[in-house]
Amino acid sequence: MNISKRLKEVSNLIEKESSILDVGTDHGYLPLFLEENRNFEKIVATDISIDSLNKLKSKLDKNSKIETKLQDGLEYLIDNEAEYVSICGMGARLIINILEKAKPYREKAKYYIFQPNTTIYELREYLLINGFKILDEVSVVEDGYYYNIIKATFGQKEDYKDYELKYSKILLEKKDKNTLNYLKKEKDRYIFIREKENISDNRKKQIEKELILIERALKRYEL
Ligand SMILES: C[S@@+](CC[C@H](N)C(=O)[O-])C[C@H]1O[C@@H](n2cnc3c(N)ncnc32)[C@H](O)[C@@H]1O
After folding, report:
1. Which CATH superfamily is domain 5-158 in?
2. Out of the domains of life, which is the source (predicted)?
């Protein structure tokens, strides 16, 4: 089965083949790929929308071990445990809401893999101040879009500088090439906006702040 580059990278961060809960599964591409290519003991795919879940259900043959559940967020963890949870293809704020609702039982999963579509720095910040530890990050570019994928568990708070929060401490440590290209593009984009005539002073100040963060991140590639 073919899988997107984005979800392939997600699967690469899953090392043990014990149990996985895929939240917001939609077509179920990740669980289908894991069932076909790996040897998981348990694969559970959930979605809040019956229409979404039916997209996966229609692809399952009767021997499939994938369990589907119509559930909100991490409800599955109220009565169960999972080695991995994947939450991919959603906005960071939605992911944060899901984690926040599950505060009393979210530690029943060991590892979390997140692939937020937007404002990833908000998710990083949330994780760092809410008892998670970021173990790894990877970046992938697909169809012109730049995605970051975070692997996290629970652990002690780490110190992050402002630009590391925004552009990923781990990817900057790795001198990640996709991140370098992204930073260069963001720099050009902000400079272009700054040069526009009808831009307010407040927006200009915001842009200057963003450019400082970008310059700090870019400096890491010179070390
Ligand atoms: C864009 S799809 C992402 C599908 C897949 N995870 C991927 O990365 O390709 C987002 C899915 O999340 C589901 N979703 C949104 N809020 C949810 C929630 N609170 N709990 C479970 N699923 C949710 C939506 O119904 C939708 O099917």
Report:
1. Vaccinia Virus protein VP39 (3.40.50.150)
2. Bacteria
